[in-house]
Amino acid sequence: MKSAKTTRRIIDTLAQQHPNADTELNYRNAFELLVATILSAQSTDARVNIVTPALFGKYADARALSKATSAQLEPIILSTGFFRQKSKSLIGMAQKLVAEHGGDVPADMEKLTTLPGVGRKTANVVLGHALGVPGLPVDRHVLRVSNRIGIAEGDDPVNVEQQLCSRLPKELWTLASDVQILHGRRICKPKPLCDQCSVRDDCDYYQHVVKKTREPKKVRTARR
Ligand code: SF4
Asked: Which of 142, 175, 212, 214 has the most C-beta neighbours closer than 10 Å?
């Protein structure tokens, strides 16, 4: 696995390649980002951004959302998929925010992850982007990119988060996630576009897999 110094250099290089890396979800405050991130499970940010203006127009805060019914919510969020479960999560989450946090989103990983529909990844997205608390969300893109480059190992998101956090300064945690997510969406896709990648000299997958398949095969000459 790469050293802390190399890991940092790789993240810096990816940040140069993706200069405005940030979550692609639209939001104006922590509550809206929390709702949008819950909706983004098994969906796309673009799809969620189509749905949220109408949703936030009707339910601007936790108090309003806590009084919604599934029958009211489901038609609005239908196109994001898994709408029954998401509707339950959103209402339960809002009710708990009102009952236990005065309607505010707590800036605390433990408290956030007790909310319905909120796992560690969602909590890290909200902490890092809307609450000023360093967080490194690990999604499928971060898993793929970090494993290919060799700055993390394994497919357990919590473990990969720990590996990356242990080798990066806190102020880079959120950026490290954002740049890997964008890199995974645009360049290091399941079928990677290595020729467009700024970190290929440091990438294990490129050096050990891609490059080898490109090397011309040696032609054996028959002995006379
Ligand atoms: S070199 Fe290829 S495999 Fe490695 S990070 Fe870049 S795009 Fe992904």
From this structure: 142
